[in-house]
Amino acid sequence: TTENKDNSSYGTTYLGSELICKECENYIRPHPITIFEHRYYDHNQTTDCWWDSHNISSFGTMIYHISHSKTIIFVDCNYHNQVLVQQTVTLPDTAEAITGIGHKQNHYSMIRIQLKGNKKEAVIFDGLFGSPLSWSQHVEHLLHRCGIHDNTQEYTKNIRLHERRDFGGRLLCQPDLFNCGPIACIVLWYHLI
């Protein structure tokens, strides 16, 4: 399905569509995909504007669709304070981690929750190196969206910032206040592809 919308703040229109994939639907519900005109991306390259949340969520959904990973599951988590009426993601038995891109106070980070292994933990990929505990509501929200309601403290007490070993020997550093969205997308791509 498609729908043209005007985004007057950028002088562009975007296409609203929905990803329909039988394999993805086994784990996540159909998700809206927003596709902006080139002018939107050109505008963001030459200014200090943030990427739109819909754009970042769409990127995550498409990367997950490309990977069809059964071990690392992508869950949209932009709005951690939305009321959940029901579980929205069914984790496969093979799931080892949940990933999501969180948003708060005009800032994005990528979150990875390790479900299996020696230590259940949440790793926050934040190029500004803010307090990892400030993302604990996002971690709980991701777990609840996947139907995990018991022992969530086990994950939130083991929440930490990323280290070099978490991103191929590189340490993320955001040199400005507006490139957090692209950085979060790069980290998600690294973990899913």
Give the rounded overall mean pLDDT.
81
Low-confidence stretches: 1-8
> What level of helicity do the residues show?
25-40%
Principal-axis shape: globular
Q: Which class best fits the helix and strand makeup?
A: alpha/beta
* Contiguous helical run count: 6
Biggest sheet strand order reads 4-5-6-7-8
Largest sheet: 5 strands, mixed
Strand percent estimate: 15-25%
Rg from C-alpha positions? 16 Å
What is the number of E strands? 8
Order of helices and strands: EEHEHHEEEEHHEH
* Terminus-to-terminus distance: 27 Å
Structural commentary:
It is a single chain. With 193 residues, this protein is α/β, with parallel strands linked by helices. Helix content is 28%, strand content 23%. The strands form two sheets. A five-stranded mixed beta sheet has the order 4-5-6-7-8, with helices on both faces. The protein has a three-stranded antiparallel beta sheet with strand order 1-2-3. Strand 1 and strand 2 form a beta hairpin. The longest helix is centred in the first third of the chain and has 15 residues. It starts with a strand and ends with a helix. The N terminus is likely disordered.
